[in-house]
Amino acid sequence: MFHHKASGPPSEKPEKEVPVQPNNEVEPALPAYTASQTTFASMTLHKSDSLHIFQLPQKEIDGLRKIIEQCCDKGIQKERVLPSSCYEFKLRGNPWNPSAWTGIESIPSRILIREMLAYLFSVGWMLHARNNDFFIFRKQAAAPPECDWISITIHGHDRLRLIGASTECRALFRDDLRAQGVLQDESWKEEENNAWEFKVKGRPWSGWGEEMDMGSPLLLRIVELLETHGWRLYTNATSHIAIQNGMMLISNGWFCAKDRQWTPGMPVARGW
Question: Within 10 A of 191 (CB to CB), how many other CB atoms are there?
Fold first, then answer.
């Protein structure tokens, strides 16, 4: 004989406890991670004679090859894809080594860097960040403006060099240096490469002493002069070179761009 046990009310499941913050507010759930839709690529001035490239499409690599062939008399020694998927151009000569500071490759190496930056800019690869000789680019959907490009370098203790500047641009620098009372001399450095050099008074690039204090306001004045006339300091560049006791950092100068549609009174673009 079976006895039927009276059933009581159905048991209720205990509520799940929700962690509460000290201020009694419930912690919001973190949003799901979404990968960036922006495409990035990089270019490195490697050792003294190579370019290392990551994530640039083949079309842009082909474009860089043309730039190198146009700017380098010695040309390309070899190309290869490394196991890391890095695309390497190994150049003849040593464009990134210490001779690029004072030697025969000084001006061609700056022209090559300038023209590579200008080419990538023209096809929508905008400089995103830089760490010495390592450049990161982001792909921009909107077409960038057509620009003119120059490079500016300082040499020795007292030289200022313009590479690729127009007669008008050289005149702006000449007039400004004269107005400051610091222009000592000027001449072609390499006319075939459109490289003009100013010799300034004193030793503003000496790196020590009172004369070093001349260099900072002079460089600030140059930046002001550039911006007043529509030029934007796009980036600077440096190279790491191995020496006996470690590494040496060599400046490759400033690289500046100017929108060809710019007219006096217009702001200088900063969103590139």
Answer: 9
Condensed to tens digits (0 to 9), the pLDDT of residues 163-195 reads: 999 999 999 999 999 999 999 999 999 999 999
Nearest to 191 by CA among 175, 170, 174: 170
Cα–Cα distance measured from residue 107 to residue 161, given in angstroms and rounded to the nearest whole number: 9
Domain map (residue ranges) of the chain = 40-259
Helix then strand then coil, in percent of the chain rounded to 5, is: 25, 35, 40
- 114 within 8 A of 128, measured Cβ to Cβ: no
Contact assessment for residue 257 and residue 231, using Cβ atoms and an 8 Å cutoff? yes
In whole angstroms, what is the distance from residue 221 CA to residue 192 CA? 28
Apex 44 CA angle, 136 and 150, nearest 5: 75
What are the tens digits of pLDDT across the range 43-71? 999 988 999 999 999 999 999 999 999 99
What Å distances lie between residue 32 and 28, 29, 35, 53, 237, CA to CA? 12, 9, 10, 32, 38
Mean pLDDT of the chain: 85
Q: With H, G, I as helix, E, B as strand and everything else as coil, classify residue 40.
A: strand
- The answer to whether 138 and 125 have CB atoms below 8 angstroms apart is yes
pTM of the model: 0.82
- Tens of pLDDT, residues 9-48: 555 555 555 454 555 555 556 555 555 678 999 999 998 8
Helix residue ranges per DSSP H, the chain: 58-71, 99-102, 106-122, 167-180, 209-228
